[in-house]
């Protein structure tokens, strides 16, 4: 299997500190032994609107020098612009669609990345879930058409702990089917399955051949093996469905007292031991 680590733990999202530059983050993950990095498209590393052509060339060289691939790119939901593909605000939806497209371009330019992770949005008080669902389908379809021109795959994530539209495995499958595009597939994060008191390995089997990405984190976004989740079962399930994507850690960022290097190292060592034993 290939292993990647998400940059949130090294960035301003969602906690402001500790934070590190793109170069420092990549060099640290390379020393720990990761194959790839999942780039959160936010400061201080990769906000698309602060990275011009020259900066992107520098980022590509840094990745190549450290032999780190870009496993995927992840637009940051929330914040000032909203970033909600299902918003009742038409301007916010339009901004989000363009932001996702700009994240696709960033991933291609710095690392030939063909995978975009998608939080399918949320609806606020006074709006209807069915309307938000329709807006999400429209926005995701728009981005999918743009992505298809470059061979980029969109991966829809159920996010129960953070949102209220696509919360479950079934929700994600339904959204994928309603969008109905060949380059729209699925992913999931163990954190959100655990939030629903569900068994993460069930998501692996239910998503099956449409599962193209996974986020690994123990309870409270801790390193796998430190909080009580059954990662042996998850890794076995991935092996049984012949999963060939990245095993990506999205953890170590709930509070400023997390040490990202420690979380990154613990996560990689623990899951590799499980893989070797299976």
TrEMBL record:
Source species, domain of life: Bacteria
One Gene Ontology term of the molecular function aspect: isomerase activity
UniProt-listed SUPFAM superfamilies: Xylose isomerase-like
Alphabetic keyword roster: Isomerase
Every Xylose isomerase-like TIM barrel domain range: 27-273
Protein name in the entry: Sugar phosphate isomerase/epimerase
């Amino acid at each position: 299997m290939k292993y990647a680590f998400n940059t949130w733990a090294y960035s301003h999202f969602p906690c402001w500190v500790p934070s590190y530059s793109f170069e420092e983050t990549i060099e640290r993950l390379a020393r720990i032994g990761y194959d790839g990095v999942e780039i959160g498209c936010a400061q201080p590393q990769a906000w698309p609107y602060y990275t011009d052509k020259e900066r992107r060339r520098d980022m590509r060289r840094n990745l190549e020098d450290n032999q780190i691939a870009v496993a995927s790119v992840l637009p940051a939901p929330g914040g000032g612009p909203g970033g909600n593909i299902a918003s009742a605000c038409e301007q916010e939806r339009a901004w989000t669609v363009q932001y996702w497209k700009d994240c696709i371009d960033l991933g291609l330019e710095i690392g030939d990345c063909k995978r975009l992770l998608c939080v399918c949005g949320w609806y606020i008080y006074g709006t209807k879930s069915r309307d938000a669902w329709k807006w999400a389908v429209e926005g995701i379809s728009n981005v999918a058409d743009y992505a298809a021109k470059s061979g980029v795959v969109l991966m829809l994530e159920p996010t129960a702990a953070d949102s209220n539209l696509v919360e479950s495995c079934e929700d994600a499958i339904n959204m994928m089917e309603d969008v109905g595009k060949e380059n729209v597939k699925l992913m999931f994060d163990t954190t959100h399955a655990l939030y629903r008191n569900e068994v993460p390995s069930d998501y692996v089997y239910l998503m099956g051949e449409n599962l193209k990405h996974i986020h690994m984190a123990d309870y409270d976004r801790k390193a796998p093996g430190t909080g009580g989740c059954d990662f042996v079962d998850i890794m076995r399930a991935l092996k049984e469905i012949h999963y060939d994507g990245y095993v990506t850690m999205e953890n170590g960022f709930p509070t400023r007292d997390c040490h990202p290097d420690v979380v990154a190292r613990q996560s990689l060592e623990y899951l590799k031991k499980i893989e070797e034993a299976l």
